[in-house]
Amino acid sequence: MTYTKATAFGEEQQELAKMAKVLSHPARIAILQHLARTQRCISGDIAQEIPLSRTTVSQHLQELKSAGLIKGEIDGLTVCYCIDKEQFTKAAAMMATFLQQVASSYDCDCQPNPIPA
User: Fold this and answer.
1) What 8-state DSSP symbol labels residue 70?
2) Is the distance from CB of 63 to CB of 81 less than 8 angstroms?
3) What SS3 class is residue 81?
């Protein structure tokens, strides 16, 4: 049995980290923003909006789909993507809760160490 350090953390922490990792790439942010504006989009249209090759856009779409943030429907030779509103809302609430918890409990009075002369 292999043991990974990730298993030392709770399920919620792992899920939050997974979502943060998926959202950590600017191309994925741009794709989500594009899908939010257009409501629905064919993968080729996305590649025209994002300054990356179709192959790279497809890889980012797969990451977003694997995380459950988007869904896609195959129509012949094209794939039409849209934001999965239910999963996206769940992820947004999870991130907001985490950020609010940290922000509301943060009260650090640490003083920086003086720089030696």
Assistant:
1) E
2) no
3) strand
Residue reference for tokens 């943030």: 69
pTM recorded for the entire structure = 0.79
Residues 55-108: tens digit of each pLDDT = 899 899 999 999 999 998 887 778 889 999 999 999 999 999 999 988 887 777
3-class secondary structure for 58-112?
HHHHHHHHHCCCEEEEEECCEEEEEECHHHHHHHHHHHHHHHHHHHHHCCCCCCC
CA distances to 35, 61, 64, 106, 109 from 22, rounded to whole Å, are 16, 10, 7, 26, 33
